[in-house]
Amino acid sequence: TVLYFNEGDAAVTVYVIIDSYNVGAAGSFELVTKTGTIQQCIDDHDIGTVANLPYTVNSNLTGKGNDVHFLSNCAGTDASPEEVYEIDLTAGETIKVTATSTADLVLTISNNCSVCLAGFDYGNAGDGETIYYVAPADGTYFITVEGYGAADVGAYSLEVKVPATCDDGISYVGCCDGNVATWCEDGELKTYDCEANYGVTCGWYQDSLQYWCKETADEDPSGNNPLACYPG
Fold first, then answer.
1. Calpha distance 91→212 (Å, rounded)
2. Rounded-to-integer distance, Cα 140 and Cα 120, Å
3. What is the average pLDDT value for the chain, to the nearest integer?
4. How far apart are CA 38 and CA 4, in angstroms?
5. Which among 16, 61, 144, 220 is least surrounded, fewest beta carbons within 10 Å?
6. What pTM does this model have?
7. Is the predicted pLDDT of residue 74 greater than 80, yes or no?
8. What is the largest CA-CA distance in the chain?
9. Is the pLDDT score of 145 beyond 70?
10. What percent of the chain has pLDDT over 70?
């Protein structure tokens, strides 16, 4: 997904180039485009404030509005009520956001309720969702808790805290030890054998900004998070 913003007042012509990764990666494709304006997070979005960490709140999605609509694909179906929480972060600050409910939840982080920075929708009803997020710059960010579908409403709990780290320097973003995904979770080193369980390798997921099981051993394109856990 690519987002383009025309920051000027005059109309401009934009060219979209579709290119394959290599010579053998040819085939049919679908291109979907849409236009929109930047939607700011406002009071109508039921905004709460995360003032101090750790932060915990119990709330309910029943009767809330479906006001947040991201310009790009993020997570979920964009068809359920949501609540929004704002939090001020400094560059490089890491937070762990966890939402639990009997409903099927979706968690997203944005900087203006229009551009999704991270989105998680991995669990089913009752599983809850968790996002680890590193702020790329100083600023105000918005955490959105919503249901997967229109019927996914009801009570939920939200927790925001600073995650514990592991002594070996591996963070929640993780890395790949061959085909084994490796990451730090609340101070404990975790591993998952992608080849043994899924028949795939370990690589970078740009949507969730972490290493996990996938078909190709892709590396973080920013260069900030190396692929190999133990180089050499």
1. 24
2. 20
3. 84
4. 11
5. 16
6. 0.66
7. no
8. 55
9. yes
10. 87
Q: How far is CA 73 from the centre of its chain?
A: 11
Query: Is the pLDDT reported for residue 59 higher than 60?
Result: yes
In this structure, the strands spanning 180-185 and 188-193 are: antiparallel
Q: Is residue 79 over pLDDT 80?
A: no
- Residues with Cβ within 8 Å of residue 201, at least 6 apart in sequence: 176, 178, 179, 194, 195, 213, 214, 215, 216, 217
Distance CA(166)–CA(177), nearest Å, equals: 16
Instruction: Tell me the per-residue pLDDT of 189-213, one tens digit each, with 9 for 90 and over.
Output: 899 999 999 999 999 998 778 899 9
Distance, CA of 134 to CA of 168 (rounded, Å): 19
- Contact between residue 202 and residue 176 where contact means Cβ atoms under 8 Å apart: yes
Q: Determine what percent of the chain is predicted with pLDDT higher than 90.
A: 34
Amino acid letter, 203: G
Going by C-alpha positions, the residue among 95, 124, 120 that lies closest to residue 186 is 95
For the cut 80, the answer to whether the pLDDT of residue 168 exceeds it is no
Place of tokens 């053998």: 24
**Is residue 114 a contact partner of residue 179, using CB atoms and an 8 Å limit?**
no
Among 123, 80, 117, which Cα is nearest to 100's?
Answer: 123
In the structure encoding, which two tokens stand for residue 63, read together?
Answer: 């009767």
